Amino acid sequence: MTPPVAEPAAATALQALRVTWSHWIEEAVRSRLRIVRLLPSGGWGLVAFLAAFNVLLGLLPVVFVVVTSILVGGVPAAIAGGLDSAAWERLTALFLLASAVFLANQVLAPVANAVNLRLRRRVDGVLRDEAMALMLRPVGIGPLEDERTLDELSETVRNFDRDWGTPGQACVGMLVLVARYTRLLALVVVIGVAIAWPAGLAVGVAVLLFRYGQRGGLRKYSRVSREVVGRNREIEYLHQVTMTAVAAKEIRLFGLTEWLADRYSTAYEAVQQHKERARRRVYLAPYLVLTSVGVVFAGFALVLAAELATSGRIDLTELALGVQAVVLAIALGGYYAEADTSTQYAMLSLSALQRLRARLDELEAGQRRPPGRDPVAASTPSAALVFDSVGFHYPGSSRTVLDGIDLELPAGQCTAVVGVNGAGKTTLVKLLTRLYEPTSGTVRADGTDIAGFDPVLWRRRIGVIFQDFVRYELTAAENIELGAAHASADRAAVLRAAERAGIAEALLALPDGLDTPLSRAYPGGTDLSGGQWQRIAIARAFYALEAGATVLVLDEPTAALDVRAEMAFFERFVEMTRGVTSLLISHRFSSVRRADHIVVVDGGRVVERGSHDELIEAGGHYARLFALQAERFARGLDADGDSLEAGVGEESR
Ligand SMILES: Nc1ncnc2c1ncn2[C@@H]1O[C@H](COP(=O)(O)OP(=O)(O)OP(=O)(O)O)[C@@H](O)[C@H]1O
């Protein structure tokens, strides 16, 4: 006998219902609670004041309606009684009261705006700091290459970058709702008292249905922004690429303008079409249904009022009051410009912030070891830096980049790591500087695993330039000082670092010397050649040494220098850095011959090690590649095939 099986259609429907329900709870309830929980960061006093203020703002129009209705109701008696009658006096008093209420409403609204702004700034300040701290929290840069983290981050930060939809504005929006719903409640009571309670309730239900149609549609529609977040990032990137001076050259030379414009408009159109379809889907049907039902409820209240008035069961005052209250209440069923959009998009941003926090926790939990917090002795390393069976693959990739590498960088000496493109040389530097953690093995300084060190203090020990160093749009001096931003600026040390990098003379000749901005986007600013920029980056690393770093890492430091400049640099380098633990990385074998030790890396492993002479004598990998590059050099080409003559005296731009 076959066992009974659950009805699949019913089970599926139940499951779908559960999912819808949990989505609704998350989007409509928990997201709102997140905003409410933010309110204290604006200061309790301010929040309490605004809440009370909004109750007042909510009630004032209702008071106005009540007073004017009583006023209208009193008109026949006042006319009959004449100017000296008590009824006329009452009419005058009511008129003055209505005017005062109207005036108060007009005056208080701008006051509320000013106070709202203060609450918004406070809350946004707190959250902006939190988002920034979250992104600086990871010890390494892996999370910045993780697509999910990037999506959450861009969604979180997007709202801070624009002028609306910030979480602070959402807090204001929540308090504005206090005004709106206080008004609705008061109007329901007024309709109940003036006409009949069923009429009051019917209007209340109608308004809530209208609101749900509007607000619920917006809630569903806002999900679309999450669906297109990746596409939006592409649009932003394409937009940015067309704006940068660096890309401008290639775009024109390769004739990319049309291609980029096409790609941009295709991505843009795709996003717009997706949004358009979503808008029709989420707004139309619910809007029609809810509005029709709402109209029936509101109509019922008005018909009831008319019926009671014609049968004489309510008087003129009550009719005027009831009808005005119904009209005012129905107006509350629409879209609230001051609250709805900002609250909705801020809720998305807060949810993204929450997911970002969770994603970072998850990435941290997946790390082999928690980040250490131990101090680093000033003399570290006094013996050696050691890579001990270090294995590594990049997060999200299964490709082994380092395959149990063993490498020793003796303290106070210059070690060169050479290898072909993609051999894993830069990855070694990323592990040494703890931008990533090894997937196996350890990196040790004087026998201590560097994973135990406070990463900030450890990084201060290392003056490093990467091949893709940053050209900051700052002054020449600042560009160098950033090598040790924690230390107080020292002009003499900047000059020494610039001299060692061979750029001091060129910088002092600039219009404002070291204070010249290195970007033409600023008044008095100038740009440098590629080689000069590279020297600035080298000076940045030397400046770190001036500020107390004990390890110097130069990753392809001469890629943009001409051949003579490169040779001159390496001639002096070993002399200049005597006593410093230095790591020199290059794929040009000819450039590292003066290093104390040379290590050849291939396929994520050390394949040879020794001094230049030892390696040449061994006649292996190094000797072969050295001979090959030397031969090209002798033929008038540098190691990369550039003309030797063309490079002399002029560094490439
Ligand atoms: N962020 C990353 N994510 C995934 N793979 C990466 C990443 N960075 C580098 N790789 C891969 O790791 C390998 C080693 O890269 P690495 O930059 O260390 O090589 P390299 O020896 O410095 O090369 P080059 O001489 O060209 O600078 C390469 O195959 C590269 O594609």
UniProtKB/TrEMBL annotation:
Record's keyword terms, sorted: ATP-binding, Membrane, Nucleotide-binding, Transmembrane, Transmembrane helix
Alphabetized Pfam families for the sequence: ABC_tran
Record-level Gene Ontology MF annotations: ATP binding; ATP hydrolysis activity; ATPase-coupled lipid transmembrane transporter activity
Domain ABC transporter positions: 385-628
A GO CC term attached to the entry: plasma membrane
Keyword Transport: no
InterPro entries: AAA+_ATPase (IPR003593), ABC1_TM_sf (IPR036640), ABC_transporter-like_ATP-bd (IPR003439), ABC_transporter-like_CS (IPR017871), P-loop_NTPase (IPR027417), Type_1_exporter (IPR039421)
Keyword Nucleotide-binding included in the entry's annotation: yes
The name this protein goes by in its record: ATP-binding cassette subfamily B protein
Species annotation: Saccharothrix ecbatanensis
